[in-house]
Amino acid sequence: MRVITGSARGVRLDTLEGASTRPTVERVKEAMFSSIQFEVPGRRVLDLFAGSGQLGIEALSRGARHADFVDSSRQAVTVITGNLRRCELENKASVFCREWQSHLAGTTVPYDLVLLDPPYGKGLCEAAVQMLSDRGLLAKNVIVICETGDKESVPERFGALTVTRSTRYGTIRLTTYREGQP
């Protein structure tokens, strides 16, 4: 697994051992970021269910202003911290070892780009977007991208957010939400 482009282009990232974490496949990550490539610079990013941190690191490498990485696993937080250091991006990041609900309940600054890659089949994308919306943590012109299993359903709307793109890559589905889109 490597950073695709930007300031950390080509840097190899560590991953987590074991079956409890499933890193995003590179072609899916590439598709995710090519669809928003000119909209990443300057954004405040949330990488929720961060795992190795590869999604938030890709955003930082492409010019995002700051990223919060949230994962409940101490091992994941150690890997994220090491990956940020290797990419020389640690000064643009905050890493939190806590449950996602605790993080969202305790933060007040809205995010411009939200990257969600939770365990599949548990409805966590829907729950997370709902909590982000309810707590006012979605900035104006936010982009929310959910990675789910291809059979997992996600709502067409969350308040002002509407699905603008939903693409299947084998057994993976990427769903993009934007504010005020038809």
Features:
182 residues; alpha/beta; Rossmann fold; 8-stranded mixed sheet
Distance between the termini: 36 Å
Per CATH, the superfamily is Vaccinia Virus protein VP39
Outline type:
globular
Major beta-sheet overview: 8 strands, mixed
CATH architecture: 3-Layer(aba) Sandwich
What gyration radius follows from the Cα positions, in whole Å? 15 Å
CATH class: Alpha Beta
Total individual domains: 1
> Count of helices?
5
Mean pLDDT: 92
Going across the biggest sheet, name each strand in turn. Answer: 3-2-1-4-5-8-7-6
Number of strands: 8
User: Unreliable segments (pLDDT under 50, ≥5 consecutive)?
Assistant: none
Helix share bin: 25-40%
Write the CATH fold name: Rossmann fold
Q: Beta-sheet strand percentage?
A: 25-35%
Written description of the protein model:
This is Ribosomal RNA small subunit methyltransferase D. It comes from bioreactor metagenome. InterPro entries: DNA_methylase_N6_adenine_CS (IPR002052), RNA_MeTrfase_RsmD (IPR004398), SAM-dependent_MTases_sf (IPR029063). Helices cover 26% and strands 29% of the residues. With 182 residues, the protein is α/β, with parallel strands linked by helices. It has one domain: Vaccinia Virus protein VP39 (Rossmann fold, 3-Layer(aba) Sandwich). An eight-stranded mixed sheet has the order 3-2-1-4-5-8-7-6. The model has no long low-confidence stretch (mean pLDDT 92).
What is the topological layout?
Elements: H1 26-34, E1 44-48, H2 54-61, E2 66-71, H3 74-86, E3 93-97, H4 100-106, E4 111-116, H5 124-134, E5 138-149, E6 157-158, E7 161-169, E8 172-179
Parallel strand pairs: 1-2, 1-4, 2-3, 4-5
Antiparallel strand pairs: 5-8, 6-7, 7-8
